[in-house]
Amino acid sequence: MRALKTILIILLALVGLLVILGLVGPSNYRVERSTTIAAPPAVVYGYVSHLSSMKEWGPWQAMDKDQVQRIEGTDGTVGATWHWEGDTVGTGSQKIVSLEPGKSVRCAMDIVEPYELLSTATYDLEPVGDSTRITWGMEGENTFMGKIMGVFMNMDKMIGPTFETGLANLKALAEEEQAAMQAEKASRTVDGYLIETVEGAETVYIGVRDTKLKWKDMGAFFGKHFPAVGAAVGAAQLEMAGAPSGVYWAWNEKDQTADMMAGMPVKGDASTQVAGYTTHVVPAGRRLKVAYYGDYAKNMDAHLAIDKYIREKGLTQYGNVIEEYVTDPMAEPDTAKWLTNIYYMVK
Questions:
Q1: What whole-number distance in Å separates Cα of residue 253 and Cα of residue 242?
Q2: For residue 323, which of 346, 304, 339 has the smallest C-alpha distance?
Q3: 210 plus 319 within the same structural domain
Q4: Cys-Cys link to 140, which of 27, 97, 119, 313 (CB 3.0-4.6 A)?
């Protein structure tokens, strides 16, 4: 009888101890690790905002390569959910609940096995020069049993090293992608000008063409005809399809003249006509593009860069060269901010 009483006292003491531990144990938890990645936030964000991308760098993939996984919903959007089940990683899911492009991601974690745990996974991005500081965290509230376990278990030491492994994987992937992008961009940069390849739509121009316009008279030519063409297009109730443009057929170094048009792009086709003006249709097709900022009269280096790129890449230039004068000089006095999109048709 005395032994039974002693056992009962011990059990009551243990229960009391557990109650006390449940009351004094930590009510919540947060584990986080950070690293700096030599890539802009937009690149890093792609890896933390898509569940399929998380699988590429997540530290748990290597722990159980036979685990069964599936993604429900549209990946990269709120509501998309990643489910997993395996002998080592247990059973659980991760659901995207919040997305702030380039800045943060929040996911609801529901771990079922080997233990039950509800938490929030956080991914926060901060630009640091040309790099990104990412902080990966996991936080939540402890249940009664969680509070007891929190007294004896150090969540930071348990999970932290795994986060460090994952961030190292992420850093390697993002920096490799950024390096590839930079190399590709460098291959398209000639004498400081970035050259893009675009697919241009068919464009109808209404304007005035001069086949032997002196270079020195070009400024006056545009100044005279752009307003007049614009007024005529408006009177004809045609809808503009872009900015005023210089459309070139030839550029003659010998006599310093150009065969060119001061044209307004409009919505229409080859049959679109405005009395007293020329209609010219530039066909759809591949074009090289340079976005040039500066005085309209000083863009020759941009043209030379495109010429050089065409030779280096073995391309053939044909048809018109187009200068699209995006910035209105009457509205922006600073010539450094004047944007001219220069297009060369190539094949």
A1: 29
A2: 339
A3: yes
A4: 119
